[in-house]
Structures are given as structure tokens and as C-alpha cells.
Amino acid sequence: MNRLAILGASGHGKVLADTAECCGWQAIEFFDDAWPQIESVSEWQVIGDTALLKGKLQSYDGVLVAIGNNQVRYHKLLELVEAGAMIPTMVHPTAIVSRYATLEIGSVVFAGAVVNADARIGMGAILNTGCSVDHDCVLGAGVHVSPGARLAGGVRVGDLSWIGIGASVRELVRIGSQVTVGAGAAVVSDILDLMTVAGVPARILPTKGKK
Ligand SMILES: CC(C)(COP(=O)(O)OP(=O)(O)OC[C@H]1O[C@@H](n2cnc3c(N)ncnc32)[C@H](O)[C@@H]1OP(=O)(O)O)[C@@H](O)C(=O)NCCC(=O)NCCS
Question: What is the model's pLDDT at position 207?
């Protein structure tokens, strides 16, 4: 039996578990640091926290992290890699990922997303429902491209950045690390590290958003 452990009993975790079932994973169990307060997510059981998961990694054929916060997700993934976990990628059967694109471990591609030729997707990235990442894009570790967001060809996105729902990014634009791009933004010029931008065209917001 194909056994998958998911760390993070979140809404995102629920979508990830559903995606995993569509990919043929047969037994899925959740872990969350809020356990035992959280006992289940949808119909899946939450059976422990990070420490318990690290103690039984050999029981799982794959381990993924489903935490929306990019930094926390990425650091939990590194912790599990160091502990010897098998970290797969997960691509929903209705997503289209070019055979010329590369996905690093721990990255997930949800229903209807498209990743075109020569795109490179970093470790632990989330390519959420119906987003598109076009040819030659390079996404760093722990990036999240939210549902319906569009990255044109050759866009670069630094580590841990978050592209909001429905945002569009013009071709060849460079987005720094730990950037937040607001929902519905149109990014037409480069964005420095740590900025939060929003609007059409995207402008810097005075305060950094949280997720
Ligand atoms: C950009 C964002 C991070 C800012 O969050 P925040 O720091 O909490 O900012 P606030 O909600 O306090 O808004 C601050 C100001 O920016 C404006 N603003 C916020 N988000 C905006 C957006 N996406 N586009 C345009 N303006 C926006 C607000 O109207 C407000 O303006 P005001 O000061 O004139 O009233 C957030 O609004 C956002 O868009 N997040 C993305 C959500 C998303 O994609 N979710 C998908 C999850 S899978």
C-alpha cells in the first residue's frame, strides 16, 4: 500500500490529500503541531505532531508539508528531509506539466494548473488550482502561486514569495525573495526582496501582508 503522511491539517492540506488520492495514494494520514486538539481534517485522521512523524518516517512512502505560510512550510520540509523522509512531488492528473519542466521535491501542482517548457520550480513550492507558470520561469524554494495567478514567460520569483490569487506577472519580470503580490495585481516591473505590492499596475503597499 502507498502510504502518505501530510504535515499540516489545513484547508490546503485537505486539497493536497484529495489530490494525492487522485494520484493513487491509498493511505493518507495527517500530522499537525496542534494535535491532539485537532483530531481530523475532512475524513482524514490527524494522528500526531512533527515529533511523532519524525519517529515513524519509515512507515511512509512519502511525506509532504501542507502549511500555507511559506517560511514555516519550507523549514518543516527541510527538517523532514534532514530526518530522512521520502519527499515526493504531487501533480494532480488534470494539471499539465511539460516534460521539459522540472519540479523539485515537495512541490505540489493542483488541478488545472499548467507549467510550460523549461520552467524550473523550487523545493516545496505550491502551484495552486488553475494557475499557470509559463516557459522558462524560475521559481525559488517555498514559493506559492495562488489559484488562477498567471506568470508569463521567463518570470523569476525568489525564495518564499507569494503570488496572490488571480495576479498576473508580465514576461521577464524579476520578483525578489519573500515578496507578497496582492490578489488581482498586475506586476509589470521588477519587485525587490521583502516588498508587498498590489493593484493594477502593482504598487508597493506600505505594510507587509501576512498569511
Ligand atoms: C496584499 C495583501 C497581502 C495585503 O494584506 P494586508 O497587509 O493585510 O493589507 P490590508 O488588507 O490591511 O489593506 C491595506 C490597503 O491595501 C489595499 N489592498 C489590500 N489588498 C489589495 C489588493 N489585492 N489589491 C489592491 N489593494 C489592496 C486595501 O484596500 C487597503 O487600502 P486602504 O489603506 O486604502 O484602505 C492582501 O490583501 C492580499 O491581496 N492577499 C492575497 C490573498 C490571496 O491571494 N489568497 C489566496 C490564498 S490561496
Answer: 64
Instruction: Judge if the beta carbon of residue 198 lies within 6 A of ligand 1.
Output: yes
Active site amino acids: 135
Regions of the chain where pLDDT drops below 50: 208-211
0.90 exceeded by pTM = yes
Please, which residues have CB within 8 angstroms of residue 86's CB and are 6 or more apart in sequence? Answer: 57, 60, 61, 62, 63
When divided into structural domains, the chain yields a total of 2
Residue of minimum CA distance from atom 34 in ligand 1: 205
For the Cβ of 11 lying below 6 angstroms from any atom of ligand 1, the answer is no
Single residue among 61, 88, 115 that ends a domain in this structure: 88
Residue nearest to atom 25 of ligand 1 (CA): 199
Q: Is residue 128 in some structural domain?
A: yes
Q: Give the CA count within 13 Å in the CB-facing half-sphere of 123.
A: 12
